[in-house]
Amino acid sequence: MHGLPNPGAWRRIRRMKTDVVVLGAGIVGVSTALHLAARGRSVVLLDRRGPGEETSYGNAGLIERASVIPYAFPRDWRSVWRYARNNTPDVSYHPRFLPRVAPWLLRYWWHSSPTRLARAADAMLPLIERSVAEHDALKDDAQISHLFRRNGWIDGVRTEAGLTRAIAEAEALAPYGLNYRVLDRQALSALEPALSTRMVGAIHWLDPVNVSDPGAVTRGYAALFQQRGGQLARGDARSLKPAPGKGWQVQGEDGVIEARDVVVALGPWSPDVLRPLGYRIPMAVKRGYHQHFALEDGATLSHPVADIDCGFVVTPMTLGVRLTTGAEFAARDAPPSPIQIQRTRALAAQLLPLGAAVEREPWMGCRPCMPDMRPVIGPAPGHPGLWMAFGHAHHGFTLGPVTGKLLASLITGQAPDMDPAPYGLRR
Predict the structure, then answer these.
(1) How far is CA 272 from CA 21, 43, 100, 269, 276, in A?
(2) pLDDT, tens digit, 9 for 90 and up, residues 263-298
(3) What structural domains and CATH numbers belong to the chain?
(4) Hey, is 280 helix, strand or coil?
(5) Which single residue of 25, 43, 381, 386 could bond 51 by disulfide (Cβ 3.0 to 4.6 Å)?
(6) Which residues 6+ apart lie within 8 Å of 350 measured at CB?
(7) CA distance 53 to 385
(8) Is 72 exposed, middle or buried (0-12, 13-18, 19+ CB in 10 A)?
(9) pTM > 0.85: yes or no
């Protein structure tokens, strides 16, 4: 993984044995470790950084109960041409990177056909519909309920034609039993007075939950994990290898950690650890950016607001209003590009009285994306005791706890509350 020392550089101080090592302290890894500890397993959670300091830190803070249809590759040529010009606020790409990502994009396009997209939606529904309940089950025990807001989120539009389309799309989701309100300009203004009249209406989704600090939520779950006997460790996940005899071992800062089972929950870095074991994971990353801003003139924002015409989200956070961008296709470890924040900041300033940026530089993270728009959750097909939990794309924060519960059930031999087959590596 980028920025880590060579595995041989670690000092061997002691050897630790445990039931399970979970690699990756993002929301998925922390949740998995927490559920395993609740089932009586001794667990070490290992990462190069602290809990919630990578991809789990930088997101819109949405538990997206209403996002039952995955984000698909556009199938109409008008949209494809729009994105190909590389001047849109919601999608950008590095031209030199396109040849490398083109095979993955072709697979993504293939899986985005109406029939295959419907299958992906059906596969994701058991996870999505349990997402809020599983967060609720953890947040109260972690004593972080104050970070959660049950006021839904707003899909805003800039034109009457856009509002008509949004209403039709919401009505098409009726079979999923989602709760929403249609807001005209007057109703939207009453709900969010600071929004300008450029946003003419919205769909207010009532089922989703949002949080004021996703990194703090992940840290809160990690603290609960420690309270329940779990251990945190710093180390190099790239050092993972089969242990002599049986099980697995990985190099921590304080020595070798051995375990019967190991979970790879490293998000966009998961392929780096699995490649030496013979696995070729068909994953790409969609890079994204956020930056916090103050609001001027005493303005406030109470709900996350998505500008669905322009592809960004503004949401109230502890540090200020977080502006979260769309997708950037570039090499995972390439230097950040300011273009998306620049484009979306100008558009967001049309909607809200944005003041000064809180941070000097925008934060950048990588969403780990599988071409069939569903995560990998389950056993590695060629190695007993090796488990996988990654590829959640835009829904990592949403699906962390439900993923952890499902995987913990599989590892401990308990009956899961859903069919895990749609999430196997070979599906």
Answers:
(1) 17, 22, 17, 6, 8
(2) 999 999 999 999 999 999 999 999 999 999 999 999
(3) 1-72+112-149+208-283+370-427 (3.50.50.60)
(4) coil
(5) 25
(6) 196, 198
(7) 27
(8) middle
(9) yes
